[in-house]
């Protein structure tokens, strides 16, 4: 019997997808796309809209009712000549004058007018031991002869890496200027070493949240001569971050000589540099809706990371929109934008935007110590040893 080969003309059947299944698959893709769009709107757009609405509402309130608040002061701690007045404002009342940031530079006075809570309106209380200069303006002539101006991120006691970075940029104190973006101390191996080296180099600085705690403890000890029981709170007033005497910043404060203390306490929470393209150096950030730099709340300036869903600054990590996003959007619409250089937010690393430069690149956690030259925007860094866990 002869078997015949299958005809080459016979073709394999084509199995077509049923219309119902094809329509169902297209519907799934459409729904996934819509869900992704909704998530994007919630994460990015909604917080910014809330911020703008907050500013509009507060502007209307100011127009309807003039501000009649007045600051009140506490006396200085007994036994010290340090200026340590504070605002008695209730920290639960969080409203601020706000609408846009356009006119901020027109209201910046000389820095000695603003210590601790003096002049803050309806703000969080400032510790009466903070000895804090809230705002310092650098005169134009101070930087007129400087060829380069560097801002360095959080050093955190990493003296070796600080020296390596200074050497790498070939820093010359006669022609260059250093500015330190806060948290000079804590977590690293040489707190006083960093302070003394910074002073030796003629570095300007701003106060970080860790620096602030050490200053408060030292001010108290200088005023009273003794330290309270470990589990008790330091009597600072109605502050958000009241410190217990067992806090690990107490031993750091006891390392400080009077000269170390004086230098660290001299670092303001805001350093305004009009001559450098209207720039500001802070440790953590600025509230995008507070028009007057003198009304920025120190607790926010030293700790904020995000703008929460309620439109207010928060120190929580990644719970809202980075404050710098809102800041850049508002500055894009400003006739006189302010550029902010800051540290504090090591979890996000180096951040470069038109009006914000984040410089905390986690040196103390074994990453890098970073500097930026303000005129050229050139960035320098050195690798760091790991001294602490995140």
TrEMBL record:
Residues 1-22, 57-101 are annotated as: Disordered. Pfam families: Metallophos (PF00149). The chain crosses the membrane at residues 28-51. Keywords: Membrane, Transmembrane, Transmembrane helix. Residues 88-101 have a biased composition (Polar residues). Gene3D superfamilies: 3.60.21.10. The keyword Cell membrane does not apply. It comes from the Eukaryota. Signal peptide: none annotated. GO terms for molecular function: endopolyphosphatase activity; phosphatase activity. Coiled coil: none annotated. GO terms for biological process: polyphosphate catabolic process. Residues 1-15, 57-87 have a biased composition (Low complexity). One of its GO terms (cellular component) is cytoplasm. Residues 148-348 form the Calcineurin-like phosphoesterase domain. This is Calcineurin-like phosphoesterase domain-containing protein.
């Amino acid at each position: 019997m002869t078997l015949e080969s299958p005809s080459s003309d016979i073709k394999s059947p084509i199995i077509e997808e049923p219309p119902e299944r094809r329509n169902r698959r297209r519907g799934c893709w459409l729904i996934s796309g819509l869900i992704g769009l909704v998530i994007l709107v919630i994460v990015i757009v909604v917080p910014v809209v809330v911020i703008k609405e907050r500013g509009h509402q507060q502007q209307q309130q100011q127009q309807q009712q003039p501000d009649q608040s007045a600051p009140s002061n506490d006396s200085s701690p007994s036994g010290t000549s340090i200026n340590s007045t504070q605002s008695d404002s209730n920290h639960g009342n969080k409203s601020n004058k706000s609408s846009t940031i356009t006119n901020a530079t027109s209201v910046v006075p000389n820095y000695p007018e603003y210590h601790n809570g003096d002049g803050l309106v309806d703000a969080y209380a400032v510790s009466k031991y903070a000895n804090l200069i809230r705002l310092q303006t650098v005169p134009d002539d101070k930087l007129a002869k400087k060829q380069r101006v560097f801002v360095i991120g959080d050093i955190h006691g990493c003296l070796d890496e600080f020296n390596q970075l200074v050497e790498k940029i070939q820093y010359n104190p006669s022609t260059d200027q250093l500015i330190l973006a806060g948290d000079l101390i804590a977590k690293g191996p040489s707190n006083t070493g960093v302070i003394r080296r910074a002073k030796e180099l003629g570095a300007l600085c701003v106060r970080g949240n860790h620096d602030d705690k050490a200053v408060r403890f030292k001010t108290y000890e200088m005023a009273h001569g003794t330290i309270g029981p470990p589990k008790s709170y330091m009597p600072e007033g109605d502050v958000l971050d009241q410190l217990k005497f067992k806090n690990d910043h107490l031993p750091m404060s006891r390392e400080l000589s009077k000269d170390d203390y004086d230098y660290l306490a001299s670092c303001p929470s805001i350093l305004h540099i009009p001559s450098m393209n209207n720039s500001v150096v802070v440790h953590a950030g600025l509230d995008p809706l507070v028009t007057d730099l003198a009304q920025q709340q120190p607790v926010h300036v030293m700790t904020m990371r995000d703008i929460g869903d309620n439109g207010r600054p928060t120190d929580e990590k990644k719970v809202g929109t980075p404050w710098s996003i809102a800041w850049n959007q508002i500055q894009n619409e400003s006739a006189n934008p302010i550029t902010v250089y800051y540290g504090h937010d090591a979890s996000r690393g180096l951040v470069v935007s038109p009006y914000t430069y984040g410089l905390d690149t986690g040196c103390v956690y074994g990453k890098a110590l970073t500097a930026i030259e303000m005129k050229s925007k050139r960035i320098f860094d050195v690798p760091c040893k790991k001294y602490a866990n995140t």
